[in-house]
Amino acid sequence: MSNKTVKGITNIGQWVTWNPVQSTMEVGEGGTWLIENGQFSDYSPKSFSDPEFLDGQGQLLTPGLIDSHTHPAFAATRELEFEMRSQGKTYQEIAEAGGGIRNSVRKLREISESELANLVETRLSLMLRHGTTTAECKSGYGLSTEAEIKSLRAIRTASKKTHLQTFSTLLGAHEIPDEYRNERDTYIDLVINDMIPAVAEQNLAQYCDVFCEEGVYTAEETEKILLAARDHGMQLKFHADEFVSSGGAELAAKLGALSADHLMAISDAGISALAGSDTVATLLPGTTFFLGSNTWAPARKLLDAGVTVALATDFNPGSNMSLSMPFVMTLAVIYLHLTPLEALQAATLGAAKSMGIEKTTGSISPGYRADAVLWQSKNYKQLPYFYGSNQVYQIMVGGKPVL
Ligand code: NIG
Ligand code: FE
């Protein structure tokens, strides 16, 4: 990590960003974005031929993408389950038979914290190479206080070794672990009275999340857990209405959660509840795609109702083994019917808002972190259009080119 800070990015082609002053997306052409103290400071229509500037070579510049929903702390991949799905088994059938999340839990408990940190570091580096400069990272494959803390510490260690800015989420209520299958209330008490206080005391997670879904955690259980997390200073996130509408979006709005995520099965009442709140709808079309489903989240209905929409990968070994935000943008354009500009807004401003960091991250504007990507593209419409190969040309984090 020997990269040096530059004075700006010059000779830019097209640049596209959320403009926080005008509250709209802005598309500019040419010139230079100046950088001071790791932040964008000003725009100049001139270009500079000075080696202390990064030469944009006339390429497209966007803010660094923000992946606001990832599960990178897993020990082993699950390609056998992928193969089983190709033979007709569903994700839920595999989970009920003891595969799925519980399969990952058994494997994570067997490896050391440093082995896990190395795996997470590799994954974060790959995210960065695909244009993600900020990521939210969940635990959730430990499901004991000890193994959840191991996961969150591994995320922290890995994050320090990469250029990515990360924020951590405790997902101790991702499933009911094998040893508590017949006493779920005992496990929920453990999450509330042991796991959350321990994680808060060590300051290991900014957010707490629960998999609120039929067959996993009910809305009542989710509320109990998240109220405890809020009492310990964590902000709230939700896995809500992924397969069945179980009131998750409504509860997220009621509790003032930062985001409700998935929402493939959100009801009209859920959409109205989000519209009447500040909770962001985080859509994960990579998961719908990877599960071979054709039930896409109702993105247009959410946007028409005035809900802020974010896009994220949901990178995880079971339901979406891809960490490419540009691919997610492609899916969003095709299946969620977002325009390329809406997709870029959702992958930057929307995602930043879903993490509570929209005043510092996700925009090429004075005072924002100088996190940006130069793409081998002429304009932002090419970004989701030319899919399946990596168009990243250069990445800047905090004013430093890092590739
Ligand atoms: O976001 N929905 C819950 N958790 C993950 C799946 C995790 C897994 O299968 O390992 C998700 O889709
Ligand atoms: Fe998830």
In brief:
The chain has 403 residues and is an alpha/beta fold. The protein contains 14 helices and 18 strands. It folds into 2 domains: 8-64 and 362-401, Roll (Urease, subunit C, domain 1); 66-354, TIM Barrel, CATH 3.20.20.140.
Primary descriptors:
alpha/beta, Urease, subunit C, domain 1, TIM Barrel, 8-stranded parallel beta sheet, 4-stranded mixed beta sheet, 14 helices, globular, binds N-(iminomethyl)-L-glutamic acid
Topology readout:
Layout lengths: L7 E3 L3 E6 L4 E6 L2 E5 L2 E6 L9 E2 L4 E4 L1 E6 L8 H8 L4 H6 L4 H10 L2 H17 L2 E7 L6 H17 L3 E9 L10 H18 L5 E6 L6 H13 L3 E6 L7 H7 L4 E4 L5 H8 L4 E4 L1 H6 L8 H6 L4 E3 L13 H11 L4 H15 L17 E4 L6 H4 L6 E6 L2 E2 L2
Helix pairs in contact: 4-5, 5-6, 6-7, 8-9, 12-13
Bound molecules: N-(iminomethyl)-L-glutamic acid and fe (iii) ion (FE).
Structure description:
By secondary structure, the chain is α/β, with parallel strands linked by helices. Helices cover 36% and strands 22% of the residues. The protein has 14 helices and 18 strands. The strands form four sheets. An eight-stranded parallel β-sheet has the order 8-9-10-11-12-13-14-15. A four-stranded mixed β-sheet has the order 5-4-1-6, with no helix packed on it. A four-stranded antiparallel β-sheet has the order 7-16-17-18, with no helix packed on it. Strand 13, helix 9 and strand 14 form a beta-alpha-beta unit. The longest helix has 18 residues. The chain is globular, with a radius of gyration of 21 Å. The model has no long low-confidence stretch (mean pLDDT 97). It binds N-(iminomethyl)-L-glutamic acid (NIG) and fe (iii) ion. The site of fe (iii) ion has 5 residues, from loops.
